[in-house]
Amino acid sequence: MMKICNLAACLVFISAAFAVGAKEIKVGAYYYAWHGDNNFHGGADTVLRYHLSPKQTPVLGWYNQQNNEVISQHYKWAEYAGIDFFVVSFWGKGSDSILREKMFNNSNRGNTELAVFLEPSISSENISSQMDYLCQNYFNKEGYLHIDGKPAVFIYITRSKSTKQLARYIKNIRSRAAANGYEVYLAGDEVWAAPNRDYEKKRISMLDAVTNYDVYGNLGRRKYVQPSHLNHWQANNKKWKQLAENLGKDFIPAVSPGFNDTAVRKGHTPSSRKLQGEKGEFGSLFSALLERALKLEGSDMIMITSWNEWHEDTQIEPVSPAEPTKKDDGEGRYTKGLAYSGYGKLYLDILREKTSTVLSD
């Protein structure tokens, strides 16, 4: 099992856990430091909520993350919801000023830790130089996330690489980290459906943990997720967890509130934030996923997809309150008949409640 707190902090936490019946769990969320122009990366018109009728806007507006007050509010909300760390999208040296200059240095960061999420731009060809940069500019920063005493690095969509490609990639990461005096903790986005044990054993062995960013794809259900799909997803998670732990590795479950990327790309049918059907409650899918993920015996970390990936509408960041609507400015092209609410801080409230409650099988 991963260890992600020092002795003093663990003792304090354990004492509190016995006192209030809370489960020891570290909560992380994928975070996007893309929004530096008050118009969002790619423009607000690439966001579903912009096309709703009437529009539904982030509580902070179409914000600029160069603004310290924006980052401060994100940290305050994270603390409220019980989020312990952000895993921040990293596209390489020169594209990371918000993370490097604004997020680490914000006076309201408190105990929120940060780690990098290597995007596809960090390739086998440039990984060595990028790792040198990370070692020299991030891993020794106060507030960088360490797991088992090692700086943590999350890697997007490792499952897209062949085993040979993955081996080269991981070897380059570990060798450059070692050359800079670091041993790193690597979490790969490897999980997809049920594991092929023979294929996955070698791949998992290269990593320290496996997880799944794409909860939408792993659920395998469009529009309304049903309890049967949740049970199938949970069964697959158990298989991945058992396989990983048999190899001495960690499995990190991930959950998401829903999915709709129709404003930024074509081809995907949205997934409602309501479980089962139109009569379900907003937030019920997120709540059910959290409950099942937290019931994975022995898991002490969970990831949320996402804090603010507005283009795929997986965000839990607060939206200004507004009545539900199925209408959009594209004659239904964006909503596909699903309703969307201006949910306020509903998802922060759900996360706060679920992760502070003992959940037993």
Topology, pairings included?
Layout: H1 7-20, E1 26-31, H2 48-51, H3 68-81, E2 85-90, H4 97-103, E3 113-118, H5 127-137, E4 146-147, E5 150-155, H6 163-179, E6 185-189, H7 197-206, E7 209-211, H8 215-219, E8 223-225, H9 227-246, E9 250-252, E10 254-255, E11 271-275, H10 284-294, E12 301-304, E13 319-325, E14 340-344, H11 346-355
Parallel strand pairs: 1-2, 1-12, 2-3, 3-5, 5-6, 6-7, 7-9, 8-11, 10-12
Antiparallel strand pairs: 4-5, 13-14
Give a concise summary:
This protein is an alpha/beta fold and 361 residues long. The chain has helices at residues 7-20, 48-51, 68-81, 97-103, 127-137, 163-179, 197-206, 215-219, 227-246, 284-294, 346-355; strands spanning 26-31, 85-90, 113-118, 146-147, 150-155, 185-189, 209-211, 223-225, 250-252, 254-255, 271-275, 301-304, 319-325, 340-344. Helix content is 34%, strand content 17%.
> Helix amount, in percent?
25-40%
Radius of gyration: 20 Å
SS strand fraction: 15-25%
H and E order: HEHHEHEHEEHEHEHEHEEEHEEEH
Please report the number of helical segments: 11
Helix/strand class: alpha/beta
Rounded to the nearest angstrom, the distance between the terminal CA atoms is: 19 Å
Principal-axes geometry comes out as globular
Low-pLDDT sequence parts: 5-23
The biggest sheet, with number of strands, parallel, antiparallel or mixed sense and barrel status, is: 10 strands, mixed
Mean pLDDT reading: 92
Strand count: 14
